[in-house]
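Consider this record:
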Amino acid sequence: MKRLLFLLLSVVFLCTIALASAAPSPQAQSESQAARVVTKVNPKDGLTYVWIPPGKFMMGCSPDDQACDDDEKPAREVIIAKGFWIGQTLVTQAAFKRVTGENPSFFHGNDELPVDKADFGDAHEYCATVGMRLPNESEWEYAARANNPAARYGEPDAIAWYKDNSHERSHEVAQKQPNAWQLYDMLGDLWEWTTDPYKAESDYRVLRGGSWRTSGAGMRVSFRGLDDPERHRNFTGFRCVGEEASAENVVR
């Protein structure tokens, strides 16, 4: 009887080791997810767009995040019923000039810098011209999280240009590590316009992502900002989404 029990325990032990060995590491899972990312180039602006699959997530204050503001609470489940394309990077100055023939940016020196000083109307018009639109707030956070419930998808210095490392200016896109869906600069560099009003019947629009002048505490995917849609700021930019998604694709 003791021998049989010993054999059974040995089998269980060996099976446990085999399963642990077979389980992919977090790094391997991330690499596998990145390998499945689908992209396309929009011929109208020359930028790369990433396909974001439908799904659901907890929007708002991340678990154990002690830095959340009141407007990030409470966290709630959001369902993204339809997939959508989103810019792999912020819209660059090169792309903006290609589409509009203009460059309103404060910062210059490289066409791969993100376009800044584009107000909400400028961003909306650009996205419409290239057959796309601005994201709503739920779509933005869903894409930024990329199935990661944490407050950020990496260490701030590795993933973002922000107050502590930006030298008080914007930087070329795609210089920092992307998230699991291969989206760059979802945190830092420039704030990003979304279509949502900050409050009901308010003209102010929600900004997401923080910028080169935002503190490290703001480098969190649930962090929210707001601004007058007619203001042109050197810390605000945007990225577009399309084509399959619409404002009705979000089920709260």
Residues 36-251 form a domain with the paralog of FGE (formylglycine-generating enzyme) fold (CATH 3.90.1580.10). The helical segments are 2-22, 26-35, 93-100, 120-129, 137-145, 156-159.
